[in-house]
Write a structure and sequence with these properties.
By secondary structure, this protein is mainly α. The chain starts with 6 loop residues before the first strand and ends with a helix. The chain has eleven helices and five strands. The strands form two sheets. A three-stranded antiparallel β-sheet has the order 1-2-3, with helices on one face. A two-stranded antiparallel ribbon has the order 4-5.
């Protein structure tokens, strides 16, 4: 049985590009490290088949614009990791980490693969389930992987204490939100927003506004900041995207136990709503993975 049954995974980069990459960054189909497969899948240059059928995934989830790396993946991804990082540095990192946290990276690799399957089918509501499952898996594991690379025990203790004890957020993502603020301290990304535009192709402005209004109705607290909610677009501060995902889960799934439910009778199709939501949320999770990789590489210099 293949390692990733029922999926078949292979390198989507042209051979002329692969031969110029360090061998550690090329997907061979034989004992490829899970962390490499995950990076390549989220970069949009891993070929995926399910039971022989192609599952196209060419979205670059490491880019805020979701734009492709094209054939410059080796150079462009390395520059995202760090200004002075080259593909050989990333290759050394992959080689050193190929046996570390294998089970965890395999699990989230499969979550992303199943997300891609449902996205290809147009089942965006089902695809959102895998985004939430991803969030649950990474919200504790990413911080622990992050601190595990700190060789200074006193610094490690301080980091863990700050994640658990200094957060005023008592909801289920308080730990993760504090982690994000720590990882990106001083980074301009914390002053950015993740934007959700409900103007889908073939849809009227009235339909887009109605769909946007349904989402607005379930937002509370600092998720409802003035100036970030427009007729057909919602902007969520970077650090709050996890809480936004949970608000969507609660409003959509917990139908009888809440007053602020997501009103499906106001939607033409829930798949339209989650088509808008999903890719931006996967970008957000991917950007945090990138930050963990960046920190781990700098800790091993």
């Amino acid at each position: 049985m293949p390692r990733y049954d029922p999926f078949e995974l292979s390198d989507a980069l042209p051979e002329s590009v692969r031969v110029r990459l360090p061998v550690e960054l090329v997907v061979t189909g034989h004992n490829d490290p899970e962390i490499l497969l995950l990076i390549r899948l989220l970069s949009g240059n891993l070929s995926v088949k399910l039971n022989g059928a192609k599952i196209p995934q060419r979205v670059n989830y490491f880019s805020p614009s979701l734009s492709s790396f094209g054939n410059r993946w080796g150079k462009e991804f390395s520059l995202l990791v760090g200004e002075n990082i080259v593909s050989e540095d990333v290759a050394r990192y992959i080689y050193r980490k190929k046996s570390v946290n294998k089970a965890f990276y395999r699990e989230i690799l499969f979550e992303v693969l199943h997300f891609c399957v449902h996205k290809k089918r147009g089942s965006h509501t089902s695809a959102f389930v895998y985004i939430y499952r991803l969030l649950e898996r990474v919200s504790y594991c990413f911080p622990l992987i992050y601190v595990s690379m700190t060789e200074d025990f006193k610094k490690t203790y301080g980091l863990i204490k700050s994640f658990f004890g200094d957060s005023k957020d008592k909801d289920e993502l308080g730990f993760f939100k504090t982690f994000i603020n720590t990882v990106f301290e001083g980074d301009e990304i914390l002053s950015t927003t993740v934007d959700f535009d409900f103007n889908l192709s073939g849809q009227t402005a009235e339909s887009a506004a109605a769909m946007c209004a349904v989402v607005k109705s379930i937002l509370g607290g600092d998720l409802r900041e003035e100036g970030l909610l427009r007729d057909c677009e919602i902007s969520i501060r970077y650090e709050n995207v996890g809480r936004f995902i949970i608000a969507l889960r609660n409003g959509f799934v917990h139908n009888l136990s809440r007053k602020d439910n997501l009103r499906v009778d106001k939607l033409r199709d829930s798949d339209d709503l989650f088509e808008v939501i999903n890719d931006r949320c996967v970008y957000w999770i991917s950007s945090i993975l990138l930050a963990v990789i960046t920190y781990n590489m700098s800790s091993n210099e």
